[in-house]
Each structure stands twice: as C-alpha cells, then as structure tokens.
Amino acid sequence: MRTSSTDSTDERFMRETFRLAKKGVGWTNPNPMVGAVIVKNRKIVGKGYHRKLGLPHAEVEALSDAGTAARGAVLYTNLEPCSHFGRTPPCANAIIQAGIRRVVCATRDPNAFARGGVEKLRQAGIKVSTGILEKEARDLNEAFFTFHEKQRPFVALKFAASLDGKLATRRGDSKWITNERARAHARRLRGAYQAVLIGIETVIADDPHLGVRTRGLRDPLRIVLDSDLRISLSARVLRDSHVVIATTKNASARKRKQLTHRGIRVLTFSGGRISPEALFAALRKMNVISVLVEGGGAVLGSIIDADSADRIYVFYAPILIGGKRAVVIGGRGADRISNALRVAQVSVHHFGDNILVTGSTRS
Description:
By secondary structure, the protein is α/β, with parallel strands linked by helices. It has helices spanning 5-21, 58-66, 91-98, 117-123, 134-140, 142-150, 180-190, 200-206, 253-261, 276-285, 297-305; strands at residues 35-40, 43-49, 74-77, 102-105, 127-130, 154-162, 195-199, 221-225, 243-248, 265-269, 290-293, 311-317, 344-351, 354-360. The strands form two sheets. A nine-stranded mixed β-sheet has the order 10-9-8-7-11-6-12-14-13, sandwiched between helices. A five-stranded mixed β-sheet has the order 2-1-3-4-5, with helices on both faces. Strand 9, helix 9 (253-261) and strand 10 form a beta-alpha-beta unit. Helix 3 packs parallel to helix 4 (117-123). It is globular, with a radius of gyration of 23 Å. The protein starts with a helix and ends with a strand.
C-alpha cells in the first residue's frame, strides 16, 4: 500500500514531537513525556515539550512559541491533549482558544482522569486525527501506559554479569565486572526511571550510591528492600531523604523511628517477607510509574517468579568467574523451558568488549 503525501507529512512532524518529548526524560514523572509542534504551510511555526512535572504541558509551550501564527495551523502531539484541570489548565481549552484548525495525536491518553481531549476538540469543530505512529508513541511512554492500563509500575531488571552468569566472585568481589563505558551507560539508565530498587544484601556488600551522576539527568527515588532493617544509618543510599525503605513488622521499631526522623519514608508490610506484588501495589499508591531493579540475585529472582518484569538490561563482560555462589537470578526458577521467561524485541549494544542485551518480556 502506498503512503499518501498527507500520511508522510503527518509522520514526519510526529517524529519531531517524539524528539522533543525525549528531552523531558526523567523529569516529567509521573506524567508522560510529550512533545508538540505547530505547523503552517508545511513549516514549523511553534514547538514545545513538557519540561518538568508542574510546568506547562507541551501543547501550551508550542502555542506560546507560535503566538498568533497558531491560528489556522495544525498541531501535532504524541499524546492526546488533556481535558482536565490538574497542576495546569486543560490543553484542549488552550488549543481551542488559539484557533488551531486540526490536531494530530499519535495515541489516546490511557489515564481516564485526563482522557477526553479528542472529544472536546471535535465538539469545538476542530478536525482530529489519531493513531499516527501509535506503536512508537506507546513505546516512548511504555511506563506511563503500563501504569494506567495494568494498574502497577513498569518494572525493568538490570544487572551486570560474567559470561557464566555470575554477579561476583566466591568472596563477594564485584568491582568491577564491566568496564567504565558500560557502567556509565548503566548510571544514565537510572535517569530514565522514577525509582531504582535494590535489596539490603547489595547495600551491605557494595554500599552503592545509586545516583545518575550525569549532567541533565535526575536522580531516581532510591528504594531498599530490608525486611529486618539491617541498613546502616551511614549507608550512601541514605545520604538524603529521597529514599524509601520497605520492611516488615518484624523490624526494630527503634530503627524505624530513627529513619522516619530523618525524613525517610518507611513502608511496613505484614509477614516476614515482602512480596513484589505488595511492594508494587504500595508504590502505585505513591504514583511511582517506573522502577529499575538492580538486584541482587534474590530480588531479581523474586520479581521474575512473580511475573512482574517488563524489560531487561543485561550487561556482559568477557570473563568467567566459576563457582556456585553469586548467581544472577535466584528464586524458584522455571520448571520447564517452555515456562521460562521469554525476551522479545532483543537489541545488542557494544561498549568496547562489553555488551548490553536489552529486550521486552511482554509481547
């Protein structure tokens, strides 16, 4: 089937909204990344993107940039313009007032509270086209769509391993399995997620920083699974209050009080173990839309056993460690190959002699 010139033009300008939207990576959570361009006579007369939670949405930024040139123009955006009053006024209202004649959006908004902009625009006599590069638009905001459609955070697993699948040596040495280029990329990955999750064993063994340490990216919320509150108050993850500790009722009430007095949020679960399902349900109530899980093996295994993983990032270094300890994935494990977690849409990136395998666990 031949692509019409209109479709081709729509796709070209829609890809520009994707490019703009990505500038907000890590800063818009729990909002989606959105870009917008305003086109008149096939030329862009205004552009904008959602820069940060609480700031104007992409459409309003683009309308401001276009000024009076917006009247009679076409507005492109990768997500349906909102129709509700939230932290900012409805974008649909601003579009109507600006005199836009046509709106092209890649996909509808999965958030029932914000959805309805398409209908409002059409009622005002504005022509609206949807579904242009819809799959790419959903992929761009995969965490946002998962959060609203599946009622839970989007969960990605990340780990670095030797070729024989070990996280560390028999003495627990893991610094460093991968090279500096691979580690720098791994830190940047954190900036794309709203939260990063580790277990207490990783805190005790490595005392990780868990920040992005990259200009222009935002440090994620740090979450530590610590059923008995063994964490040291001098641990680097506790350097400020941008952290959540998940524990159980078995933990010390005194230690819990020490943490809360420092402004650290402590989530307390019943039983002696914290299930991934209970944790992610609690994080959803906190409006955490995406979590990057950095292990170790027991934490990664529990999430795979719970079928809660949506994406993987696996860094491999060309070394063999051997031994029975420090396996990458713990938990029960699959009973049959046919029941193993399948990874699709696989891509491979090289960082010198290290490689990164990325893929989706959802078809």
